[in-house]
Design brief:
This is Major facilitator superfamily (MFS) profile domain-containing protein. Keywords: Membrane, Transmembrane, Transmembrane helix. GO terms for molecular function: transmembrane transporter activity. It holds the Pfam family MFS_1. With about 550 residues, this protein is an all-alpha fold. The chain has one domain: MFS general substrate transporter like domains (Growth Hormone, Chain: A, Up-down Bundle). About 65% of the residues lie in helices and about 0% in strands. It has a 3-stranded antiparallel beta sheet with strand order 1-3-2.
Amino acid sequence: MCQPTHHAAPPAAHGKAGLQNKNAQLILVYSFLLSVYSSLVSNTPLTVYISMITSTNTDVGIATGIQGIVNLLIALPVGALADVIGRELLLRAAAVMALIAAAYTAVCLLYIHGSGEFDNHTTYLSLCGASALWGLFMGLHASPLEALFGDSVATGDRSQIYVWRSSLRTLGSVVGPLVSIFCFITHNQWDLHELTVILLVGVGFAIPPAVCLFFFRDKNSLGDASEGLHSRRAASPAFPQAAAEAPPPQEPPPPHDSPLPPLQREHSSPKRHGQGEELAAAPPLDSALVGSVQEEERVASCRMCGCLFTVDHVAPLVALSDTLGFVGNGMTVKFFPVFFKDKLELLPITVNLIMLAGPIGIAAVALLMQRVSLRLGRVPTAVLCKATGASMLVAIACIRYVPQTGAAAKYAIVPLYLMRTWLINCTSGLTKSVLNDYVPKRNRGKWNALESVNLFSWSGSALLGGYLSTEISYKNTFLITSGMQFCSVACLLPLISLVAAESQAHLRRPKLEQVVISDATSSTTCTSPLLAAGGSCEARACGAR
Protein backbone atom coordinates (compact mmCIF):
# COMPACT_ATOMS: atom_id res chain seq x y z
CA MET A 1 0.00 0.00 0.00
CA CYS A 2 1.41 3.36 -1.00
CA GLN A 3 1.36 6.24 1.42
CA PRO A 4 3.01 9.67 1.46
CA THR A 5 6.27 9.85 3.28
CA HIS A 6 5.75 10.70 6.92
CA HIS A 7 7.02 9.70 10.28
CA ALA A 8 4.82 6.78 11.28
CA ALA A 9 4.00 6.17 14.91
CA PRO A 10 5.55 3.01 16.27
CA PRO A 11 3.18 0.06 16.00
CA ALA A 12 1.37 -1.11 19.10
CA ALA A 13 2.52 -4.26 20.77
CA HIS A 14 1.25 -7.25 18.85
CA GLY A 15 -2.08 -8.48 20.24
CA LYS A 16 -2.23 -5.81 22.98
CA ALA A 17 -3.81 -2.93 21.07
CA GLY A 18 -7.24 -4.54 20.91
CA LEU A 19 -7.49 -4.64 24.69
CA GLN A 20 -7.37 -0.83 24.80
CA ASN A 21 -10.74 -0.57 23.06
CA LYS A 22 -13.86 -0.50 25.25
CA ASN A 23 -15.95 -2.53 22.82
CA ALA A 24 -13.28 -5.22 22.59
CA GLN A 25 -12.97 -5.41 26.38
CA LEU A 26 -16.73 -5.74 26.80
CA ILE A 27 -16.98 -8.38 24.06
CA LEU A 28 -14.47 -10.54 25.93
CA VAL A 29 -16.59 -10.31 29.09
CA TYR A 30 -19.81 -10.87 27.16
CA SER A 31 -18.45 -13.94 25.36
CA PHE A 32 -17.50 -15.57 28.64
CA LEU A 33 -20.91 -14.87 30.23
CA LEU A 34 -22.86 -16.10 27.21
CA SER A 35 -20.79 -19.27 27.17
CA VAL A 36 -21.68 -19.87 30.82
CA TYR A 37 -25.36 -19.66 29.91
CA SER A 38 -24.91 -21.99 26.93
CA SER A 39 -23.08 -24.60 28.99
CA LEU A 40 -25.96 -24.70 31.47
CA VAL A 41 -28.86 -24.69 29.01
CA SER A 42 -27.97 -25.41 25.40
CA ASN A 43 -25.40 -28.15 25.81
CA THR A 44 -25.59 -31.41 27.80
CA PRO A 45 -28.46 -30.61 30.24
CA LEU A 46 -31.08 -29.69 27.62
CA THR A 47 -30.01 -32.47 25.25
CA VAL A 48 -30.38 -35.15 27.92
CA TYR A 49 -33.56 -33.52 29.28
CA ILE A 50 -35.34 -33.69 25.90
CA SER A 51 -33.98 -37.18 25.29
CA MET A 52 -35.51 -38.37 28.56
CA ILE A 53 -38.98 -36.86 28.01
CA THR A 54 -39.23 -37.97 24.36
CA SER A 55 -36.94 -41.05 24.21
CA THR A 56 -35.70 -40.29 20.66
CA ASN A 57 -32.70 -38.47 19.24
CA THR A 58 -34.88 -37.21 16.38
CA ASP A 59 -36.89 -35.02 18.76
CA VAL A 60 -33.65 -33.65 20.20
CA GLY A 61 -32.58 -32.72 16.68
CA ILE A 62 -35.92 -31.06 15.90
CA ALA A 63 -35.81 -28.86 19.02
CA THR A 64 -32.25 -27.81 18.20
CA GLY A 65 -33.03 -27.36 14.51
CA ILE A 66 -35.88 -24.94 15.23
CA GLN A 67 -33.41 -22.55 16.85
CA GLY A 68 -31.12 -22.82 13.86
CA ILE A 69 -33.87 -22.24 11.30
CA VAL A 70 -35.18 -19.12 13.06
CA ASN A 71 -31.61 -17.91 13.43
CA LEU A 72 -30.99 -18.34 9.70
CA LEU A 73 -34.19 -16.55 8.66
CA ILE A 74 -33.31 -13.43 10.62
CA ALA A 75 -29.50 -13.42 10.53
CA LEU A 76 -28.93 -12.46 6.89
CA PRO A 77 -31.25 -9.42 6.83
CA VAL A 78 -29.91 -8.34 10.23
CA GLY A 79 -26.34 -8.59 8.91
CA ALA A 80 -27.20 -6.33 5.97
CA LEU A 81 -29.08 -3.94 8.27
CA ALA A 82 -26.09 -3.72 10.62
CA ASP A 83 -24.02 -2.21 7.80
CA VAL A 84 -26.71 0.44 7.22
CA ILE A 85 -27.96 1.57 10.64
CA GLY A 86 -25.01 0.47 12.75
CA ARG A 87 -24.51 -2.31 15.28
CA GLU A 88 -25.59 -0.60 18.50
CA LEU A 89 -29.39 -0.52 18.00
CA LEU A 90 -29.55 -4.15 16.89
CA LEU A 91 -27.58 -5.29 19.93
CA ARG A 92 -30.05 -3.52 22.21
CA ALA A 93 -32.95 -5.25 20.45
CA ALA A 94 -31.15 -8.56 20.97
CA ALA A 95 -30.79 -7.80 24.68
CA VAL A 96 -34.56 -7.33 25.02
CA MET A 97 -35.18 -10.58 23.15
CA ALA A 98 -32.77 -12.47 25.44
CA LEU A 99 -34.66 -11.30 28.52
CA ILE A 100 -37.99 -12.37 26.98
CA ALA A 101 -36.59 -15.79 26.02
CA ALA A 102 -35.16 -16.32 29.51
CA ALA A 103 -38.50 -15.50 31.15
CA TYR A 104 -40.42 -17.82 28.82
CA THR A 105 -37.98 -20.70 29.36
CA ALA A 106 -38.34 -20.34 33.12
CA VAL A 107 -42.14 -20.54 32.75
CA CYS A 108 -41.78 -23.73 30.68
CA LEU A 109 -39.64 -25.41 33.32
CA LEU A 110 -41.41 -24.19 36.46
CA TYR A 111 -45.06 -24.19 35.40
CA ILE A 112 -45.62 -26.33 32.31
CA HIS A 113 -43.37 -29.17 33.48
CA GLY A 114 -43.11 -28.48 37.20
CA SER A 115 -46.83 -28.19 37.91
CA GLY A 116 -47.55 -31.74 36.76
CA GLU A 117 -50.70 -30.57 34.93
CA PHE A 118 -49.23 -31.14 31.47
CA ASP A 119 -47.78 -34.23 29.83
CA ASN A 120 -44.24 -34.60 28.48
CA HIS A 121 -45.34 -33.87 24.91
CA THR A 122 -46.72 -30.47 25.95
CA THR A 123 -43.49 -29.74 27.78
CA TYR A 124 -41.53 -30.67 24.67
CA LEU A 125 -43.62 -28.37 22.45
CA SER A 126 -43.18 -25.49 24.89
CA LEU A 127 -39.41 -26.02 24.85
CA CYS A 128 -39.50 -25.92 21.04
CA GLY A 129 -41.13 -22.48 21.39
CA ALA A 130 -38.34 -21.42 23.75
CA SER A 131 -35.82 -22.66 21.19
CA ALA A 132 -37.43 -20.39 18.58
CA LEU A 133 -37.09 -17.37 20.89
CA TRP A 134 -33.42 -18.13 21.52
CA GLY A 135 -33.01 -18.41 17.74
CA LEU A 136 -34.37 -14.87 17.41
CA PHE A 137 -31.87 -13.69 19.99
CA MET A 138 -28.95 -15.38 18.25
CA GLY A 139 -29.97 -14.01 14.86
CA LEU A 140 -30.28 -10.47 16.22
CA HIS A 141 -26.96 -10.30 18.04
CA ALA A 142 -24.45 -12.58 16.29
CA SER A 143 -23.84 -10.59 13.08
CA PRO A 144 -23.73 -7.08 14.62
CA LEU A 145 -21.53 -8.25 17.48
CA GLU A 146 -18.99 -9.96 15.21
CA ALA A 147 -18.92 -6.92 12.92
CA LEU A 148 -18.43 -4.56 15.87
CA PHE A 149 -15.61 -6.75 17.18
CA GLY A 150 -13.91 -6.59 13.78
CA ASP A 151 -14.37 -2.80 13.74
CA SER A 152 -12.83 -2.46 17.22
CA VAL A 153 -9.56 -4.36 16.64
CA ALA A 154 -6.79 -3.15 14.34
CA THR A 155 -6.02 -5.17 11.23
CA GLY A 156 -2.84 -7.14 11.85
CA ASP A 157 -3.50 -7.48 15.59
CA ARG A 158 -6.48 -9.79 15.48
CA SER A 159 -5.33 -13.37 15.91
CA GLN A 160 -4.28 -13.12 19.55
CA ILE A 161 -7.34 -11.28 20.85
CA TYR A 162 -9.62 -13.51 18.78
CA VAL A 163 -7.96 -16.57 20.30
CA TRP A 164 -8.32 -15.03 23.77
CA ARG A 165 -12.01 -14.58 23.09
CA SER A 166 -12.29 -18.17 21.87
CA SER A 167 -10.50 -19.37 25.00
CA LEU A 168 -12.81 -17.36 27.26
CA ARG A 169 -15.80 -18.87 25.54
CA THR A 170 -14.51 -22.37 26.07
CA LEU A 171 -13.61 -21.64 29.70
CA GLY A 172 -17.17 -20.40 30.22
CA SER A 173 -18.32 -23.80 29.04
CA VAL A 174 -16.69 -25.28 32.14
CA VAL A 175 -19.38 -23.82 34.42
CA GLY A 176 -22.17 -26.07 33.13
CA PRO A 177 -20.40 -29.37 33.84
CA LEU A 178 -19.27 -28.08 37.26
CA VAL A 179 -22.83 -27.20 38.27
CA SER A 180 -24.02 -30.56 36.93
CA ILE A 181 -21.42 -32.45 38.95
CA PHE A 182 -22.50 -30.59 42.09
CA CYS A 183 -26.18 -31.42 41.45
CA PHE A 184 -25.52 -35.11 40.77
CA ILE A 185 -22.95 -35.66 43.52
CA THR A 186 -25.48 -37.07 46.00
CA HIS A 187 -27.56 -38.95 43.43
CA ASN A 188 -25.40 -40.11 40.56
CA GLN A 189 -28.28 -41.10 38.28
CA TRP A 190 -29.89 -39.32 35.35
CA ASP A 191 -32.94 -37.57 36.83
CA LEU A 192 -35.30 -34.89 35.47
CA HIS A 193 -35.38 -32.99 38.77
CA GLU A 194 -31.63 -32.37 38.82
CA LEU A 195 -31.67 -31.46 35.13
CA THR A 196 -34.47 -28.95 35.75
CA VAL A 197 -32.45 -27.27 38.50
CA ILE A 198 -29.43 -27.00 36.20
CA LEU A 199 -31.55 -25.49 33.40
CA LEU A 200 -33.09 -22.92 35.75
CA VAL A 201 -29.64 -21.86 36.95
CA GLY A 202 -28.67 -21.45 33.30
CA VAL A 203 -31.70 -19.26 32.58
CA GLY A 204 -30.58 -16.99 35.41
CA PHE A 205 -27.12 -16.75 33.86
CA ALA A 206 -28.68 -15.46 30.62
CA ILE A 207 -29.42 -12.11 32.27
CA PRO A 208 -25.82 -10.74 32.71
CA PRO A 209 -24.82 -11.11 29.02
CA ALA A 210 -28.15 -9.58 27.98
CA VAL A 211 -27.40 -6.54 30.16
CA CYS A 212 -23.92 -6.25 28.59
CA LEU A 213 -25.48 -5.75 25.16
CA PHE A 214 -26.90 -2.39 26.25
CA PHE A 215 -23.39 -0.94 26.71
CA PHE A 216 -21.84 -1.44 23.27
CA ARG A 217 -21.26 1.79 21.32
CA ASP A 218 -20.60 2.30 17.62
CA LYS A 219 -18.60 5.44 18.43
CA ASN A 220 -15.99 3.33 20.25
CA SER A 221 -15.05 1.39 17.11
CA LEU A 222 -11.80 2.16 15.29
CA GLY A 223 -11.39 4.02 12.04
CA ASP A 224 -9.01 3.11 9.23
CA ALA A 225 -6.87 1.03 11.60
CA SER A 226 -9.50 -1.73 11.50
CA GLU A 227 -10.12 -1.54 7.75
CA GLY A 228 -9.78 -4.70 5.68
CA LEU A 229 -6.65 -5.25 3.62
CA HIS A 230 -8.51 -4.98 0.32
CA SER A 231 -9.83 -1.52 1.14
CA ARG A 232 -6.42 -0.34 2.28
CA ARG A 233 -4.86 -1.49 -0.95
CA ALA A 234 -7.61 -0.39 -3.31
CA ALA A 235 -8.41 3.06 -1.97
CA SER A 236 -5.62 4.61 0.00
CA PRO A 237 -6.14 8.26 0.99
CA ALA A 238 -2.44 8.72 0.31
CA PHE A 239 -2.89 9.06 -3.43
CA PRO A 240 -4.80 12.38 -3.54
CA GLN A 241 -2.35 13.93 -1.12
CA ALA A 242 0.65 12.65 -3.05
CA ALA A 243 -0.78 14.02 -6.28
CA ALA A 244 -1.42 17.41 -4.70
CA GLU A 245 2.12 17.64 -3.41
CA ALA A 246 3.73 16.45 -6.64
CA PRO A 247 5.61 19.07 -8.71
CA PRO A 248 4.02 20.05 -12.03
CA PRO A 249 5.04 18.00 -15.05
CA GLN A 250 7.95 19.25 -17.15
CA GLU A 251 7.40 21.02 -20.43
CA PRO A 252 8.00 18.79 -23.45
CA PRO A 253 11.49 19.08 -25.01
CA PRO A 254 11.88 21.39 -28.02
CA PRO A 255 11.47 19.80 -31.44
CA HIS A 256 14.57 18.54 -33.24
CA ASP A 257 15.40 17.95 -36.88
CA SER A 258 17.29 14.70 -36.50
CA PRO A 259 15.72 11.64 -38.14
CA LEU A 260 16.68 9.66 -35.05
CA PRO A 261 14.30 9.60 -32.08
CA PRO A 262 15.21 11.96 -29.28
CA LEU A 263 17.15 10.64 -26.35
CA GLN A 264 15.01 9.87 -23.31
CA ARG A 265 15.65 12.35 -20.54
CA GLU A 266 16.45 11.00 -17.10
CA HIS A 267 13.39 12.10 -15.14
CA SER A 268 14.90 11.16 -11.85
CA SER A 269 17.79 13.63 -12.22
CA PRO A 270 17.83 15.88 -9.15
CA LYS A 271 19.16 18.91 -11.02
CA ARG A 272 16.63 18.53 -13.82
CA HIS A 273 13.80 18.93 -11.32
CA GLY A 274 15.40 21.44 -9.10
CA GLN A 275 15.34 18.98 -6.23
CA GLY A 276 19.03 18.46 -5.84
CA GLU A 277 19.24 19.57 -2.24
CA GLU A 278 16.24 17.57 -1.08
CA LEU A 279 17.18 14.32 -2.76
CA ALA A 280 20.82 14.70 -1.95
CA ALA A 281 19.85 14.74 1.69
CA ALA A 282 17.75 11.60 1.39
CA PRO A 283 19.31 8.57 3.07
CA PRO A 284 20.70 5.88 0.76
CA LEU A 285 18.48 2.85 0.26
CA ASP A 286 19.44 -0.53 1.57
CA SER A 287 19.85 -2.52 -1.63
CA ALA A 288 18.81 -5.75 0.06
CA LEU A 289 15.64 -4.14 1.39
CA VAL A 290 14.81 -2.63 -1.99
CA GLY A 291 15.36 -6.04 -3.53
CA SER A 292 12.91 -7.49 -1.03
CA VAL A 293 10.31 -4.89 -2.00
CA GLN A 294 10.89 -5.62 -5.69
CA GLU A 295 10.41 -9.32 -5.04
CA GLU A 296 7.15 -8.59 -3.24
CA GLU A 297 6.03 -6.57 -6.26
CA ARG A 298 6.94 -9.46 -8.54
CA VAL A 299 4.81 -11.93 -6.60
CA ALA A 300 1.94 -9.47 -6.20
CA SER A 301 0.14 -10.95 -9.19
CA CYS A 302 0.74 -14.59 -8.27
CA ARG A 303 -2.12 -17.06 -8.13
CA MET A 304 -2.58 -20.48 -6.62
CA CYS A 305 -3.76 -23.75 -8.11
CA GLY A 306 -3.45 -22.92 -11.80
CA CYS A 307 -4.65 -19.31 -11.66
CA LEU A 308 -7.82 -20.25 -9.74
CA PHE A 309 -7.32 -18.49 -6.41
CA THR A 310 -6.28 -14.99 -5.36
CA VAL A 311 -6.72 -13.01 -2.16
CA ASP A 312 -10.23 -12.18 -3.40
CA HIS A 313 -11.11 -15.78 -2.53
CA VAL A 314 -9.76 -15.75 1.03
CA ALA A 315 -12.96 -14.68 2.79
CA PRO A 316 -15.30 -16.94 0.76
CA LEU A 317 -13.11 -20.00 1.27
CA VAL A 318 -12.72 -19.37 5.00
CA ALA A 319 -16.49 -18.92 5.32
CA LEU A 320 -17.16 -22.10 3.33
CA SER A 321 -14.67 -24.04 5.43
CA ASP A 322 -16.31 -22.86 8.64
CA THR A 323 -19.77 -23.74 7.34
CA LEU A 324 -18.75 -27.27 6.35
CA GLY A 325 -17.09 -27.74 9.72
CA PHE A 326 -20.19 -26.54 11.56
CA VAL A 327 -22.44 -28.84 9.52
CA GLY A 328 -20.26 -31.83 10.34
CA ASN A 329 -19.88 -31.01 14.02
CA GLY A 330 -23.59 -30.35 14.46
CA MET A 331 -24.41 -33.88 13.37
CA THR A 332 -22.56 -35.39 16.33
CA VAL A 333 -21.67 -32.87 19.05
CA LYS A 334 -25.19 -32.67 20.48
CA PHE A 335 -25.37 -36.45 20.72
CA PHE A 336 -22.07 -37.32 22.36
CA PRO A 337 -23.59 -36.98 25.88
CA VAL A 338 -26.42 -39.33 24.83
CA PHE A 339 -23.84 -41.65 23.23
CA PHE A 340 -21.86 -41.74 26.47
CA LYS A 341 -25.05 -42.32 28.48
CA ASP A 342 -26.69 -44.98 26.31
CA LYS A 343 -23.85 -46.74 24.49
CA LEU A 344 -20.92 -46.47 26.91
CA GLU A 345 -23.25 -46.55 29.95
CA LEU A 346 -21.39 -43.77 31.73
CA LEU A 347 -22.87 -42.20 34.86
CA PRO A 348 -23.80 -38.48 35.03
CA ILE A 349 -20.71 -37.36 36.95
CA THR A 350 -18.40 -39.19 34.54
CA VAL A 351 -20.10 -37.64 31.50
CA ASN A 352 -19.89 -34.17 33.04
CA LEU A 353 -16.22 -34.66 33.90
CA ILE A 354 -15.62 -35.41 30.21
CA MET A 355 -17.62 -32.32 29.25
CA LEU A 356 -15.55 -30.35 31.79
CA ALA A 357 -12.24 -31.50 30.31
CA GLY A 358 -13.36 -30.53 26.80
CA PRO A 359 -13.49 -26.72 27.12
CA ILE A 360 -10.46 -26.56 29.43
CA GLY A 361 -8.41 -28.40 26.83
CA ILE A 362 -9.77 -26.28 23.98
CA ALA A 363 -8.76 -23.08 25.77
CA ALA A 364 -5.25 -24.34 26.50
CA VAL A 365 -4.66 -25.76 23.01
CA ALA A 366 -6.07 -22.62 21.36
CA LEU A 367 -3.55 -20.41 23.18
CA LEU A 368 -0.75 -22.80 22.22
CA MET A 369 -1.82 -22.95 18.57
CA GLN A 370 -1.95 -19.15 18.35
CA ARG A 371 1.71 -19.05 19.32
CA VAL A 372 2.45 -21.81 16.82
CA SER A 373 0.61 -19.86 14.10
CA LEU A 374 3.05 -16.95 14.46
CA ARG A 375 5.77 -19.28 13.16
CA LEU A 376 3.81 -21.73 11.02
CA GLY A 377 1.04 -19.43 9.77
CA ARG A 378 -2.62 -19.23 10.68
CA VAL A 379 -3.98 -21.37 7.84
CA PRO A 380 -1.36 -24.16 8.07
CA THR A 381 -2.00 -24.36 11.82
CA ALA A 382 -5.76 -24.63 11.26
CA VAL A 383 -5.29 -27.28 8.56
CA LEU A 384 -3.04 -29.39 10.77
CA CYS A 385 -5.40 -29.27 13.76
CA LYS A 386 -8.59 -29.90 11.80
CA ALA A 387 -7.17 -32.79 9.79
CA THR A 388 -5.79 -34.50 12.91
CA GLY A 389 -9.08 -34.05 14.77
CA ALA A 390 -11.10 -35.48 11.88
CA SER A 391 -8.77 -38.50 11.77
CA MET A 392 -9.41 -39.15 15.45
CA LEU A 393 -13.17 -39.20 14.85
CA VAL A 394 -12.58 -41.86 12.20
CA ALA A 395 -10.66 -43.86 14.82
CA ILE A 396 -13.59 -43.54 17.26
CA ALA A 397 -15.97 -44.85 14.60
CA CYS A 398 -13.72 -47.85 13.98
CA ILE A 399 -13.63 -48.94 17.64
CA ARG A 400 -16.22 -51.60 18.36
CA TYR A 401 -17.66 -51.27 21.85
CA VAL A 402 -19.69 -54.03 23.54
CA PRO A 403 -21.32 -53.19 26.91
CA GLN A 404 -20.02 -55.06 29.95
CA THR A 405 -17.12 -56.54 27.96
CA GLY A 406 -15.62 -53.52 26.24
CA ALA A 407 -13.94 -51.63 29.06
CA ALA A 408 -10.72 -51.30 27.08
CA ALA A 409 -12.59 -49.81 24.13
CA LYS A 410 -14.38 -47.42 26.49
CA TYR A 411 -11.08 -46.15 27.84
CA ALA A 412 -9.81 -45.65 24.27
CA ILE A 413 -12.89 -43.79 23.03
CA VAL A 414 -12.90 -41.14 25.76
CA PRO A 415 -9.27 -39.93 25.23
CA LEU A 416 -9.77 -39.91 21.47
CA TYR A 417 -12.96 -37.90 21.90
CA LEU A 418 -11.19 -35.33 24.07
CA MET A 419 -8.21 -34.91 21.73
CA ARG A 420 -10.55 -34.67 18.76
CA THR A 421 -12.61 -32.01 20.56
CA TRP A 422 -9.54 -29.96 21.48
CA LEU A 423 -8.04 -29.96 17.99
CA ILE A 424 -11.22 -29.41 15.97
CA ASN A 425 -12.37 -26.47 18.09
CA CYS A 426 -9.10 -24.70 18.93
CA THR A 427 -8.74 -22.87 15.59
CA SER A 428 -11.96 -20.84 15.47
CA GLY A 429 -10.16 -17.70 16.67
CA LEU A 430 -7.53 -18.05 13.94
CA THR A 431 -10.00 -18.49 11.09
CA LYS A 432 -12.20 -15.66 12.36
CA SER A 433 -9.18 -13.32 12.48
CA VAL A 434 -8.35 -14.23 8.87
CA LEU A 435 -11.91 -13.52 7.75
CA ASN A 436 -12.00 -10.06 9.33
CA ASP A 437 -8.52 -9.19 8.02
CA TYR A 438 -9.75 -9.69 4.45
CA VAL A 439 -13.22 -8.10 4.65
CA PRO A 440 -13.82 -4.32 4.31
CA LYS A 441 -15.52 -2.65 7.26
CA ARG A 442 -18.52 -1.66 5.16
CA ASN A 443 -19.28 -5.34 4.48
CA ARG A 444 -18.47 -6.90 7.84
CA GLY A 445 -22.10 -7.09 8.93
CA LYS A 446 -22.97 -9.15 5.86
CA TRP A 447 -19.95 -11.42 6.11
CA ASN A 448 -20.39 -11.98 9.81
CA ALA A 449 -24.01 -12.91 9.14
CA LEU A 450 -22.38 -16.12 7.97
CA GLU A 451 -21.61 -16.74 11.63
CA SER A 452 -25.35 -17.06 12.15
CA VAL A 453 -25.62 -19.24 9.05
CA ASN A 454 -22.97 -21.43 10.63
CA LEU A 455 -24.98 -21.56 13.84
CA PHE A 456 -27.96 -22.64 11.75
CA SER A 457 -25.92 -25.27 9.97
CA TRP A 458 -24.70 -26.50 13.36
CA SER A 459 -28.21 -26.55 14.82
CA GLY A 460 -29.94 -27.63 11.62
CA SER A 461 -27.54 -30.50 11.03
CA ALA A 462 -28.35 -31.69 14.56
CA LEU A 463 -31.78 -32.57 13.19
CA LEU A 464 -30.12 -34.70 10.51
CA GLY A 465 -27.68 -36.13 13.04
CA GLY A 466 -30.51 -37.18 15.34
CA TYR A 467 -32.18 -39.04 12.50
CA LEU A 468 -28.97 -40.66 11.25
CA SER A 469 -27.77 -41.79 14.68
CA THR A 470 -31.14 -43.50 15.19
CA GLU A 471 -31.43 -45.04 11.72
CA ILE A 472 -27.88 -45.90 10.63
CA SER A 473 -25.97 -45.98 13.97
CA TYR A 474 -23.53 -43.63 15.67
CA LYS A 475 -20.59 -45.19 13.82
CA ASN A 476 -21.81 -44.20 10.36
CA THR A 477 -22.83 -40.76 11.60
CA PHE A 478 -19.30 -40.24 12.94
CA LEU A 479 -17.85 -41.23 9.55
CA ILE A 480 -20.11 -38.77 7.73
CA THR A 481 -19.06 -36.03 10.15
CA SER A 482 -15.37 -36.75 9.61
CA GLY A 483 -15.93 -36.59 5.84
CA MET A 484 -17.47 -33.11 6.19
CA GLN A 485 -14.52 -32.02 8.30
CA PHE A 486 -12.01 -33.22 5.70
CA CYS A 487 -13.95 -31.17 3.11
CA SER A 488 -13.58 -28.20 5.46
CA VAL A 489 -9.82 -28.75 5.50
CA ALA A 490 -9.72 -28.96 1.70
CA CYS A 491 -11.22 -25.45 1.46
CA LEU A 492 -8.30 -24.05 3.46
CA LEU A 493 -5.51 -25.69 1.47
CA PRO A 494 -5.43 -23.08 -1.36
CA LEU A 495 -5.04 -20.32 1.23
CA ILE A 496 -1.77 -21.52 2.72
CA SER A 497 0.29 -19.27 0.41
CA LEU A 498 -2.28 -16.48 0.24
CA VAL A 499 -3.05 -15.60 3.84
CA ALA A 500 -0.88 -13.26 5.81
CA ALA A 501 1.57 -14.20 8.52
CA GLU A 502 1.07 -11.68 11.29
CA SER A 503 4.47 -12.27 12.86
CA GLN A 504 6.25 -11.29 9.62
CA ALA A 505 4.00 -8.28 9.18
CA HIS A 506 4.99 -6.87 12.55
CA LEU A 507 8.68 -7.52 11.91
CA ARG A 508 8.68 -6.11 8.41
CA ARG A 509 6.36 -3.12 8.71
CA PRO A 510 8.77 -0.79 10.61
CA LYS A 511 11.53 -1.48 8.08
CA LEU A 512 9.37 -0.90 5.04
CA GLU A 513 8.11 2.39 6.43
CA GLN A 514 11.67 3.71 6.21
CA VAL A 515 12.10 2.84 2.53
CA VAL A 516 11.74 5.98 0.37
CA ILE A 517 11.26 5.43 -3.34
CA SER A 518 11.91 8.70 -5.21
CA ASP A 519 10.91 9.52 -8.77
CA ALA A 520 10.17 12.59 -10.84
CA THR A 521 6.84 13.45 -9.28
CA SER A 522 6.52 12.28 -5.68
CA SER A 523 8.06 10.52 -2.76
CA THR A 524 6.23 7.50 -1.38
CA THR A 525 6.60 4.95 1.36
CA CYS A 526 6.00 1.32 0.59
CA THR A 527 4.25 -0.68 3.24
CA SER A 528 2.79 -4.10 2.71
CA PRO A 529 0.85 -5.17 5.80
CA LEU A 530 0.50 -8.81 6.60
CA LEU A 531 2.76 -10.18 3.90
CA ALA A 532 2.61 -13.91 3.51
CA ALA A 533 5.83 -15.85 3.57
CA GLY A 534 7.32 -16.96 0.33
CA GLY A 535 5.17 -14.90 -2.04
CA SER A 536 1.93 -13.47 -0.75
CA CYS A 537 -0.51 -12.45 -3.43
CA GLU A 538 -1.58 -9.52 -1.28
CA ALA A 539 1.81 -7.78 -1.53
CA ARG A 540 1.58 -4.53 -3.42
CA ALA A 541 4.96 -2.85 -3.41
CA CYS A 542 4.89 0.46 -5.24
CA GLY A 543 7.49 2.52 -7.01
CA ALA A 544 10.28 -0.07 -6.96
CA ARG A 545 12.05 -0.38 -10.28
